[in-house]
Amino acid sequence: MDTAVSGLQQFQQDINVIGNNIANVNTTAFKTQRIDFQDTLSQVLGTDPSVLVGTGVSTTPIESNFAAGAVANTGVATDMAITGNGFFVVRNPTTGVQYLTRAGDFQIDASGYLVTSNGFRVQGFSDTGLSTMGDIKIDATGAPSTAAAGATVSSFAIDATGRINVTLSDGTNFTRGQVLLQNCEDPNALVNNGNNLYTATPAAGMLSQSVAPQTAGVGAIQSDALETSNVDLTDEMSNLITAQRAFEANSKIITTSDEILQDLVNLKR
Predict the structure, then answer these.
(1) Could you tell me if residue 150 is left (phi over 0), alpha (psi between -120 and 50 degrees) or otherwise beta?
(2) Residues 60, 53: Cα–Cα separation, whole Å
(3) Which residue of 39, 116, 181, 269 has the smallest Cβ count within 10 Å?
(4) Which tens digit of pLDDT belongs to each residue from 203-229?
(5) Contact present, 162 and 221 (Cβ < 8 Å)
(6) pTM of the predicted model, to two decimals?
């Protein structure tokens, strides 16, 4: 009976993970999660050490599939997708803590900073000389001396290398800054903080510092686009059916064990 109980517990966990994947099928840059099953320590029956019986099942820690999702064009200038390896780096302006994310659904806040939906500022070269790393701001700061006084940002575009090319109201063009990317050897060693945010750990094998897109093994930036979830709904529904049947089978084992125990009790009567 204990073996069947362990099966119920682990398949319930499997169903929870599958349900979370299905719920996030439309979440920007969401990565499919999974758990793997493994048998628990077997016990010896009688005195013969070669006669073993399993004592149930356990699961491995939840892992994510970091394969890239499809890229969907949005036409929004602040939206960005990474085609290839890498993560955007964002910073909580209140605590100073930095996070990694694949979700490029950014926006410009009231102060001109490029931020996530919860106000975390995108990191990269924050000056026109592309030498100072910090919070990226899209404004007329650092405009050429030939620009008209009081000229404001008319439009901007972000190229494949992350450079932010600004056009002012007087027609002047200049590079305001550059979005940089981070990468790691083992993405599953990152800590998932929710909201599409990850925290780096020593085990993840991070780059020594953020780098420009299309260098050091990181991908390019595709602007006016977002990476979609990599959840395959067909696979998840199939996995859900399998997990549900396995859960039912383990519950049947408990029912059968209970009937056997009841028969043993009746024998004593």
Answers:
(1) left
(2) 21
(3) 269
(4) 999 999 999 999 999 999 999 999 999
(5) yes
(6) 0.85
